[in-house]
Amino acid sequence: MHIDFQQQFFAEMGPRHQFQFLYDAIPDVFFFTKDRESRMVWANRQLIKRLGARSEEDVIGAYDSKFFPMEIAKKYRADDCFVMETSQPINNRVEVFYNETKILDWHITSKIPLFNADGSQVIGVAGVMRSYKAGKRWAAPASEIEEIVEYMRTPEGSLATVEELAQRAHLSSRQLNRKFQAVFGMSVRDFKIRTRLNSAAEDLTKTELSVCQIAVDHDFSDQSTFSRLFRKHMGMTPLEYRRSYRIQMVVGSDHQE
């Protein structure tokens, strides 16, 4: 009886996209829908603004590579493909996304497959994203290693070995790596590198420090190693990232005028 009541209500309701107005009203939460090719089909207002786009028209039909470094766009695409090919959701995956100052920072993402009308075929993916800091209270897997993540962001913690971090968490190194793999999709070592790179990226955008000095400040052995790792994870060199950020800031300010 309850199912019949529900079906009757939705049949009378009209277009389901009416719910999208609610998504626009939720602050600091980003909703999106993509097709089989990972092209953006819909995004809520908060996401459009965070991407630095002028309007929905600038986003619809676009690939992630329009807004993000190539390596990050490839990671998003890989996650989309996993969801669409397996018909399995990704829940509370922690990954990088732009924060309010257009700096890459940790966010929590969940994605689900979207099916056609008769449920026989996956036609796309829908997702929701929120900052890690704001959303970690409701991301249970992330909360299990929250203390270690926060410790790794301190000067002392950034230098700790995997073994030392595991001991602090009262886990074996293998157990800690498994938890990081489940939450972040990467090992503890790769997370450490990514965290240092995120912090270095912030210095590239907010200071006039040289690339060499930033490499030293974030404990990379030399500028060459820093530049190589930065390019691998960000898809561009440190100087290219600095220039790209400044261009985006100019474009974003023009959109607001």
UniProtKB/TrEMBL annotation:
Q: Which InterPro entries match?
A: Homeodomain-like_sf (IPR009057), HTH_AraC (IPR018060), PAS-like_dom_sf (IPR035965), PAS_4 (IPR013656), Tscrpt_reg_AraC-type_HTH (IPR020449)
Q: Which domain of life is it from?
A: Bacteria
Residue stretches making up the HTH araC/xylS-type domain: 146-244
| Gene3D superfamilies given in the database record | Homeodomain-like, PAS domain
Q: Which GO terms describe its molecular function?
A: DNA-binding transcription factor activity; sequence-specific DNA binding
The keyword Nucleotide-binding is annotated on this UniProt entry: no
Task: Identify the keywords attached in UniProt to this record, alphabetized.
Answer: DNA-binding, Transcription, Transcription regulation
**PANTHER family on file:** ARAC-FAMILY TRANSCRIPTIONAL REGULATOR (PTHR43280), HTH-TYPE TRANSCRIPTIONAL ACTIVATOR RHAS (PTHR43280:SF28)
What is the name of this protein?
HTH-type transcriptional activator Btr
Task: Name its species.
Answer: Bremerella volcania
User: Which gene holds the coding sequence for this protein?
Assistant: btr_1
